[in-house]
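Aim 2, interim progress: modelling of the NAP-bound target.
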Amino acid sequence: MKNTVKRIALIVNQRPRSQEVFQKLSRMLRPYKQFELSRKNPDIVISIGGDGMLLSAFHRYKDQLDKVRFIGVHTGHLGFYTDYRDFELDLLVQNLLLDQGAQISYPLLQIKIHYQSGDIKEYLALNEATVRRTDRTMVADLHLNQVPFERFRGDGICISTPTGSTAYNKSLGGSVLHPTIEALQVTEVASLNNRVYRTLGSSVIVPRKDKIEILPLSDSTHTLLVDNHVYQVEQVSRFECQIYHRKIPFMASSKHTSFWERVRDSFIGEVEDE
Ligand code: NAP
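Predicted structure of the complex, ligand included:
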């Protein structure tokens, strides 16, 4: 990588601790002529807050994935997208000075809404996309790689990325997927299962090349949740989900915490000797 000035965008939530860290990190970076703090066309985006904040930073810069790399600083516990804790700013600055452009990337989900009118709208998700109905039971056909798989009845269907597998997907009973596995996971949200209605009941892990399609049987309003964004959509002929051709790049450094350590620390904690 050329030894040019790195443009760094600091994106922060409103929590007092995050604001303090933002002020401190800004003060630490300003003296270096190698860095320029700018939210316009950055090379590196540092999100300060939690995983939710990193999701917001991703959505702000998702059109620049070919140029930008992300770093997460967590002002609470260590998160899934955040490599640094708020007391590790010295190490972060050191790693930024040593950085030669190395990156570690994770798969993203592309959702295309095909409307009955023929219009198509596209969205990108870092964690997941969920299609649901809130007023009535959602009835929709699920197709996996063009195979009509099941007629779903229930609250909704969630499609998650590997890194999103520890978020809403996990609460729905889905599996935790290592982020190097390029696959999507389909999980049911409160499916109706009885002698008349039948779905698989477990989550399904779908490989990179396979398309997942959700075909609603009703024209009425469905809610599409894409990470932390909510859209009301109607007259949809199908929702098409697939792994996106670009990944989200993070700045790689020796600090990168093992995924299994993150899962253990977030959900299990220390195992006490008996
Ligand atoms: P939020 O409702 O304020 O926070 C949801 C929680 O999910 C936060 O604790 C957040 O961590 C955590 N989180 C986000 N991404 C994660 C990931 N990949 N793995 C593990 N935990 C993760 O909403 P938000 O902060 O804007 O985040 C939106 C996300 O919340 C959605 O994408 C969805 O996955 C998740 N969510 C989960 C449920 C559920 O589990 N029942 C319900 C709604 C939404 P931080 O505290 O570090 O920010």
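The mean pLDDT is 95. Residues 16-29 form the longest helix (14 residues).
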